[in-house]
Amino acid sequence: MELAFFRLDGDRLVPLDLARSMWRDDQMHGLAVSGALGRAIEARGLAAGRSELVPARYTVDLFKAATMEPCHVETAVVRDGPRLLLIDAVLRQGGEPVARASAVLLRRTAVPDGEVWSPDDVPQPPPLEIAPDSDVPHIPFFHSDAGWSQDFGQHQNASRKQTWQTAVPVVLGEQATPFVAAASIADATSLVTNWGTEGVQYINTDITLSISRPPAGVQLGLLATDHHASDGVAVGSATVYDRQGPFGVATVTALANSRRTVDLSDGMTYQRGPKQ
After folding, report:
1. How far apart are CA 5 and CA 41, in angstroms?
2. In sequence order, what are the residues at sequence separation of 6 or more whose Cβ sits closer than 8 angstroms to the Cβ of residue 51?
3. pLDDT tens, residue by residue, 110-127
4. 81 contact partners, CB below 8 Å, separation of at least 6
5. What is the CATH topology of the domain spanning 6-107+126-260?
6. 13-50 per-position pLDDT tens digit
7. What gap in Å lies between CA 151 and CA 269, rounded to an integer?
8. What's the rounded Cα separation, in Å, for the pair 222 and 157?
C-alpha cells in the first residue's frame, strides 16, 4: 500500500487507497480531505511571505461526500493585515466544490502578564514503551476504560476516549508538516467523541481546530472533553496535545448516520449498513 492519501498528477490530487472512508468504498474520509485543504492553505501562507505568522484557527466544512476521484484545491487570500492573514480554500471534484476551509494565521507577540484559568485535566500520551517516538505512520492508538491499545474492538464502549496518532503524508513523497498533521488528525475528533457501544453512528459535517502554537511534530493526540447530542445532531470537542503538552481544541458537528454505522467491534474490521 502506498503510504499517503494522494499522489500528484500535475496540479491534481489523485486519491490513494489510504484515503478511502469506512463509511463507503467510493468515499474519501475527512482526514484526507482536511489534510489536502490544510496543505494548500499552508502553501498559500508561505507564498505570501508571512513567516512571522502562525496558524491559529482552521475550519473545514464537509458539505458534500468527496469521492475517490481526482481533485484539486483552489486558495485565495481574504485578508493580509499587519497582525493576521486569512486564507480560504475550496476542494473541487469534476469542477464542483465538495469541501471548503478557512484559516487565520496570527502574528506572534509576547505573552501578557497575569494569570488566567486553565484546566487541570492534562492529557498524557501513551508511554514510550507502548508508542515509541517515530514519524512513521502507524495504526492509531486509542485509550478508553480498556487502556491504551491498537485493538479497536476493545474501545467500542461508552467510556471517554483518547487517541494518539502519527500523521499520514497527504501527498506521496512529501513529509507531513506539523500544521498539516494537525489539520488532518483533527478529523479524528469525531472518533473520540462520537464512538460508542454500537460503533460510530454520526458522520461529521465540519471540523474546527484552534491552536495556540504549532505542534512540536507530527505525533498528536486528542482527548474527548465534551459531547452533546439531540434530534440526530451531535457536537463534540477534544483537547489537542503532543508530548510537550496541550496546545489547542478541536470541535466537530455531526449528523446521525445509523443506517450506515461504522462498527469497529471486530478490531480493525468494520461493517456497513444498507446502502441509502
Report:
1. 17
2. none
3. 999 999 999 888 999 999
4. none
5. Porin (2.40.160)
6. 999 999 999 988 999 999 999 999 999 999 999 999 99
7. 10
8. 17
